[in-house]
Amino acid sequence: MNSFYCLKMASHIVGYPRMGPKRELKFALESFWDGKSSAEDLEKVATDLRASIWKQMADAGIKYIPSNTFSYYDQVLDTTAMLGAVPDRYSWTGGEINLSTYFSMARGNATVPAMEMTKWFDTNYHFIVPELAPSTKFSYSSHKAINEYKEAKALGVDTVPVLVGPVSYLLLSKAAKGVEKSFSPLSLLSSILPVYKEVIAELKAAGASWIQFDEPTLVKDLESHQLSAFSAAYAELESALSGLNVLVETYFADVPADSYKTLTSLSSVTAYGFDLERGTKTLELVKSGFPAGKYLFAGVVDGRNIWADDLAASLATLQSLEAVVGKDKLVVSTSCSLMHTAVDLVNETKLDDEIKSWLAFAAQKVVEVNALAKALAGQKDEAYFAANAAALASRRSSPRVTNEEVQKAATALKGSDHRRATTVSARLDAQQKKLNLPVLPTTTIGSFPQTVELRRVRREYKAKKISEEEYTN
């Protein structure tokens, strides 16, 4: 029987790494940007990567598989393209946004600068900040979500299309240059919702039964008018969403009590996704009150680290939620998208077996999620759980992690050990004599670009063709 059609347990993945197990997308993008390959070549690499990701999740038994989480740059820029919110300086004239316009917004071109880039919450991932104004016109200009849903369906994989939610999109936006300081991008909510309705209608017509809206700004401390925007947005979308199961996904932190109350009051929403790895207070909110008949997508497998999950602890958390949510309404999930971790341990051929047993990259976390879902359904893989427990115990007791000499030295510390033997002024004098720093020392915030020559020398040193002295000089 085709593994795409095997019995699926209640399991879900928020998102998956895009780069590929051997950084295939990175190399394809660089080749395209350098003019060494065509758009068709780039799209072929992307298509193959998406297919392999969907197949991997389906083969692992994941029930709720995401689509439209792949991106050439980032999901917020993809949403900007979907909405046709292209700043005037890129001279876009309408129609489906092509790669030239898309990458110009992300990277700039010979005549115009790129849009601002900023951190995606507290991760090392970045996104392109939308530039909006009262005059911004929105139109359905990128059919990426529907195209990728159909792409997966043609492979026999029914997916959950993922969109950046309308309120989070606006809260993550900034006012375009020259716009009055009093302007709030959130005031454009009624202008972007018609585009969301078009996207939803296409997904429904194509056969989607679930849709996921990522609304991570719900973990921030929002003001009352911002919370009201969530209520207004999903009330406005309610008729368009009729007939669909709707998941609103949050991640990276606790959802504050007021936000939790607002979110769980949305009548058009079927399911709520929470980061229960970082969201310990959210866990208590769920236990103290969860809307009857709704689904909880419980993010118990950490999407931001490279360590194997404590399966026994996660299973205990899930079992404690069954009585609150209902056994048939509890779905095992990741705490956030797995794009924040490495791709697959199978490529780590130089790691020894002990360290490898402690780790779980994205591919392994998918397996962990499904193992927890099976255990919750009464089909616990005892051998898998036992191996996990042994690996955790090994890591805790290993001298590679816990150095007894360091522990003894730390225990022996006295109060005086926490104070310097010299004064600040004496240290400053010594440092100045040694370093001779100017009044305002400056440095780089990252490494300089690597030249072809530097790469060649490094390659020769690794191959032992030149000595360390030749390499460093």
TrEMBL record:
Keyword Lipid biosynthesis found: no
Keyword Oxidoreductase: no
GO BP annotation list: methionine biosynthetic process; methylation
Domain of life: Eukaryota
Pfam families per record: Meth_synt_1, Meth_synt_2
Main enzyme class: transferase
Cobalamin-independent methionine synthase MetE C-terminal/archaeal domain sequence ranges: 440-472
Pathway recorded for this protein: Amino-acid biosynthesis; L-methionine biosynthesis via de novo pathway; L-methionine from L-homocysteine (MetE route): step 1/1
MF GO annotations: 5-methyltetrahydropteroyltriglutamate-homocysteine S-methyltransferase activity; zinc ion binding
Cross-referenced InterPro entries: Cbl-indep_Met_Synth_N (IPR013215), Met_Synth_C/arc (IPR002629), UROD/MetE-like_sf (IPR038071)
Cofactor entry: Zn(2+)
Enzyme Commission number(s) from the entry: 2.1.1.14
Main function: Catalyzes the transfer of a methyl group from 5-methyltetrahydrofolate to homocysteine resulting in methionine formation.
Protein name: 5-methyltetrahydropteroyltriglutamate--homocysteine S-methyltransferase
Organism encoding this protein: Aegilops tauschii subsp. strangulata
Source species taxonomy: Eukaryota, Viridiplantae, Streptophyta, Embryophyta, Tracheophyta
